[in-house]
Structures are given as structure tokens and as C-alpha cells.
Amino acid sequence: FTVTYNSTGGSSVNSETVNWNTAAPTPTPTRTGYKFVGWFKSDGTKYEGEGITENTALIAHWDIQMFTITFMTADHEVYTTLSVPYGTTLVNAMDEAQVASYGVKDVSGYRVSKISSITEDTQVLIYELTKMEKVGNFIGTHEWVLWTTVGMIAALMITAGVAIAVAVKRGQ
Q1: Which is higher by pLDDT, 130 or 12?
Q2: What angle do CA 132, 135, 138 make, to 5 degrees?
Q3: β-bridge mates for residue 125, sequence order
Q4: CA-to-CA distance for 100 and 93, rounded, in angstroms?
Q5: Given this model, what pLDDT does residue 133 score?
Q6: If you count Cβ atoms within 10 Å of the first and of the last residue's Cβ in the chain, which end, N or C, has fewer?
Q7: pLDDT for the residue 128
């Protein structure tokens, strides 16, 4: 019988042919950011090595890896820690840790992009933003402010253009 493997986003696994009532091989696929849980049958039960008596599809199940992000003060003292799933953006972790209004640097003191993804246990330094950095941070995390401002400026420019055109027309 043919046993097919659906790795559900993991590394590819080739189909196997097994004899009647023989256990299927259970290779271990890999998937970045996830831990392999095991192979499951289409009815949702875990495949435990029982004999195969018909063509069978096995489906990989995964648990997402969790990582710890440690937010530290400029003195390298732990401010707070947070456990986040693989791929969480730094800005989302900062929101959850209630430190989104701070700047962030790596432990060497270099600024870190808030849109970077967490892919391992991470330590970062948080620091107070300057007034201008706070404005930029607010606009960067609230796009509606930027687009509202752009819209208002465009409306003012159109209004000014129409007013100038009317004044020129009346002056003729």
C-alpha cells in the first residue's frame, strides 16, 4: 500500500510503499520555527505505528516554538520578560510588554528595527525616546495620522489653487 506524507509546510517527505499490515516509516521532517509533534491520520488520531491495511495519508502536526524576549534598561537590568511565538515582530512584543513607546537597541547598543522578527531567545535594551522620536514613533505606529495629514494638506493645496484661480479670473 502507498503511504503519502503531508508535511504541512515542513520539509518534503517522499511517499513509501509498505506491505499489508506493516508499520509505515515515520521520518521526521523539519520546519523553521516549529517542533515536529508527529504524524496523524486523516481522522485526526495520532499514527502510533499500527499496520497499514489500505492506502494511507499521514499528516504532520507541529507546535510553534516559543522564545523569550528580555527587555532591559540602559543599565542592563531586566525590566520585563515575555514569551512569544516564533516570528512575532519586535513591535508586537513591545506592545504586549507595554514598552512600545520606548526605543530599542541590541545589547551592544545598536538600534534595532521594531519590525524585525523574533527567531530566538533575545535580549534588548529599551530607552526613553526624544520628543521628536516620540512623534516619529507615534506616526510610524499609527498610519492613519500620516494619511490624515497628507489628505488635509492636499485639500488645502486644492483649495488654495482654486482660490488663486478665482482671484486671477476676477482680476481680468
Answers
A1: 12
A2: 150
A3: 72, 105
A4: 8
A5: 78
A6: C
A7: 86
